[in-house]
Write a structure and sequence with these properties.
It is a single chain. The chain contains 6 helices and 3 strands. It is of the alpha+beta class. A 3-stranded mixed sheet has the order 1-3-2. The protein binds zinc ion. Residues 118, 122, 128 line the site of zinc ion.
């Protein structure tokens, strides 16, 4: 799977030596030493709620927040936001859900923050347009760097084998 499609060749040329040397994963683990303790569903719900309270008070309420084991194996999705419309009595109610790929339980803390910021931003902006990324960088100023580094992380996991953020630390 190519996680790096769409990035400038010059940018990719800078990281290619690390990929070739099998050192991409170690380099990222050094750059992002901070792990996180968000492992349970409850912890994820709280984590999302905290970010949401800080930045998106006016966004529509979330019906569900969950880890998802199947994400990522199906295509390129790392998180999803869905609006399920259901008829309740005579009303059409929209229920918004955020699902985060379970692989983020094992990533550095910064990458979990990045994907949650991404999915939260979709509560307000549906498309990946300018307004969307403006909202992402408002919530997390390093958003673009983090997304690139997350893609490098996934590339490393695929090539060098899956390893937690800090081996031996749970
Ligand atoms: Zn998106």
């Amino acid at each position: 799977m190519n996680y790096l499609a769409g990035y400038a060749p010059q940018l990719l040329a800078q990281v290619q030596p690390l990929i070739d040397a099998g050192r991409l994963g170690d380099t990222l683990r050094q750059r992002y030493p901070e792990v996180h303790g968000v492992k349970s569903e409850r912890a994820l719900v709280d984590y999302v709620a905290t970010l949401r309270r800080e930045y998106l008070r006016s966004a529509p309420p979330l019906a569900k927040v969950a880890w998802d084991d199947r994400l990522h194996s199906v295509g390129n999705a790392l998180g999803t936001h869905t609006t399920v419309s259901r008829v309740q009595g005579t009303q059409l109610k929209a229920k918004r859900e955020i699902r985060i790929a379970s692989l983020f339980k094992q990533t550095p803390a910064a990458f979990l923050r990045m994907i949650v910021v991404h999915e939260l931003a979709h509560l307000k902006v549906r498309e990946h347009d300018k307004a969307f990324y403006a909202l992402c960088t408002h919530m997390e100023p390093a958003y673009h760097q983090l997304e690139f580094d997350l893609r490098l992380w996934l590339t490393a996991q695929e090539r060098e084998g899956p390893r937690p953020a800090q081996p031996g630390f749970r």
